[in-house]
Specification:
Helix content of chain A: 25-40%
Bound molecules: iron/sulfur cluster
CATH class of the largest domain in chain B: Alpha Beta
Structural class of chain B: alpha/beta
CATH topology of chain A: Translation Initiation Factor IF3
Number of domains of chain A: 1
Number of domains of chain B: 2
Strand order of the largest sheet of chain B: 6-7-9-8-10-11
CATH architecture of chain A: 2-Layer Sandwich
CATH class of chain A: Alpha Beta
Oligomer: heterodimer
Mean pLDDT of chain B: 90
Largest sheet of chain A: 4 strands, mixed
Radius of gyration of chain B: 25 Å
Strand content of chain B: 15-25%
CATH architecture of the largest domain in chain B: 3-Layer(aba) Sandwich
Low-confidence stretches of chain A: none
Number of helices of chain B: 12
Strand order of the largest sheet of chain A: 1-2-4-3
CATH superfamily of chain A: TusA-like domain
Largest sheet of chain B: 6 strands, antiparallel
Order of helices and strands of chain A: EHEHEE
Largest interface: A-B, 19 and 25 residues
Strand content of chain A: 25-35%
Distance between the termini of chain A: 17 Å
Shape of chain A: globular
CATH topology of the largest domain in chain B: Rossmann fold
Distance between the termini of chain B: 59 Å
Low-confidence stretches of chain B: 1-13
Number of strands of chain B: 11
Order of helices and strands of chain B: EHEHHEHHEHEHHHHEEHEEHEE
Number of helices of chain A: 2
Radius of gyration of chain A: 12 Å
Amino acid sequence: MVSVSKHALDARGLLCPLPVIRTQERVAQLAPGDILEVTATDPGVLADIPAWCRVHGHQVLETRRNGNLIVIALQVTA
Amino acid sequence: MSASAPLPTTASAASTPRKAVALISGGLDSMLAAKVMLEQGIHVEGINFYTGFCVEGHTHAIRREHQLKPKRNNALWVAEQLGIKLHIVDVIEEYKDVVINPKHGYGSNLNPCLDCKGFMVKKAREWMESHGFDFIITGEVIGQRPMSQRKDTMPVVARESGAFDRLLRPLCAKLLPETLPEREGWVDRAMLLDFNGRNRKPQMALAAQYGFVDYAQPAGGCCFLTNEQYSHKLADLWAARGTKQYEIDDIMLLKVGRHLRPRPHFKLIVGRDEGENNFLNGYRKRYAHLNATSHTGPLVLLDGQANDDDLLLAARLTARFGHGRDAERVEVAVTDLSGTTRTLTVAPLPANEIPAEWYL
Ligand code: SF4
């Protein structure tokens, strides 16, 4: 049985493209199916993380905004 | 993928495409170079290096959010248009030595372009080796840039990066000696190009032919180091500290706000709009800072050492750049590094008492 493991990345205070770079480094350590939730403050991530996911074939599951905080959940694909 | 897809029984050279790693800046030239390789059936993946000086990204974060054009990272945009992967690599630490000690010197500002190209191709070579790729491509064009893209500097980059003949520049390859991918027949030299000089028309024509629209056209170069004012601020930082060093926060802050050095031992960074004030706000724990409390106005960071007289001057300048500039008295909160705040009541410094040399 495969269980989905959830991971969190704190990218608050980082300016683009650093949140994307940290996301990329983290995803490299995850397995297909894993979910990574990135929390960031630079609104640039709203464009950049989904673009990075499209380019690498990963899936954005959800984008939430909570005041200055932006949370993007993505699922790693093979 | 369907499970019934036939698996190749023998791995022939023809069935496994050769792999190239392409330096992708987000500009048109590297986009075209990658496309030329894709057209030849090469497997291409992009690599983009983040030095901290890149124009990409930050200014968006700093400026206010409402913008007509949606924010985008041009390197990622290029990769998406081409349908290739893009690996963005953090080289902030390693790049310091390139900026601080460039063997080939600087260009017209503090841009160490030739060393920078050698460094990036070297990093791409390391990536190529560790990922089982065959060669490296760049969007360089002979004669395009006075320092780094000349016929005599092309071999320097190939040699100093250790890439040698595994470095192919598809846009001007016909004007250069044959490289390994051409000799081995992985790519067809006849289909490569002979672009030369500063004229951008051939690139635009090729872009039109490929149907590329809306690509980024950076004016100066790919990074802030080609910007005269930015370089001036960096040189000032080095001079004031008496050493050519920097941290990432230093070089980020050089992109933001109005910078004034009223005394050799301190400078002020004054937010110019709400976006910059918000950005500077993120640094208030690391710098002494000032802001008017009786009127609206900017957040001002103080970098350096300041005695009481200096703080008074800083407070008068802070008042000067806010809405209380014409008031007789403005109250300014001054917070030191320990977080202790006191309020000074000051007269805003008149504009004619701010010498032009204070502005960096
Ligand atoms: S403009 Fe900047 S990034 Fe581009 S080659 Fe010169 S130093 Fe390097």
